[in-house]
Amino acid sequence: MCQSWYDRYCLSPGIDKLCGGPEVMKLRAEVVPLAEGTVLELGLGSGLNLAFYDPQRVTKVLGVDPGVALTDLAAARMAAAPVPVELLSISGEALPQADLSIDTVLTTFTLCTIPNVYAALREARRVLKPGGKLVFLEHGLAPEPAVARWQRRLNPLWGALAGGCQLIRDPRALLEDAGWHIEEAHHEVGYGMPGPRVLTYLYRGVARPLGRA
User: In the chain, where do the E strands start and end?
Assistant: First the structure.
């Protein structure tokens, strides 16, 4: 997939900086080690999660990302990762993995951007083994009405500037609507990163498909 000059030289480095600050990296260091077995990471991006995978628990990471140009930023992190990493330059809405073949799906700052997020969450359900889990760290709709109003006002402009990122998605509601049960590990981090409140309300947790053992 061809990326524009703006995507390659402005958007991708900007996202790397915004989502790679000390506060966010601390949260990644808490969330990513929950992954185990064969991991499907939706939205590998620039590889900010890779250093945090536990080689005692993870056998392989399949990094899904349709933005081929992002591999320029991710290459060094992939090479230095403590576990084997395979980059799949595809969309999360149509995964090539077999049914019941993945132990953990990891998503960080990704559900805001996938165009058909429900299709991606259905695919994640399909590929998970019985007992598998989805681990997430996402930003989204703030609970304060005043902040949420500004998120709705700014969402069209922000989406155009930020590669389709949506300010008004609620990760918890998305997962529940798509047939996931969010476990007790879930909690809202709150404004967990520097920046305007419209951008920085965070959610994290573990979810499992409803109806699965």
Answer: 37-42, 58-64, 85-88, 102-108, 128-139, 180-182, 187-191, 201-209
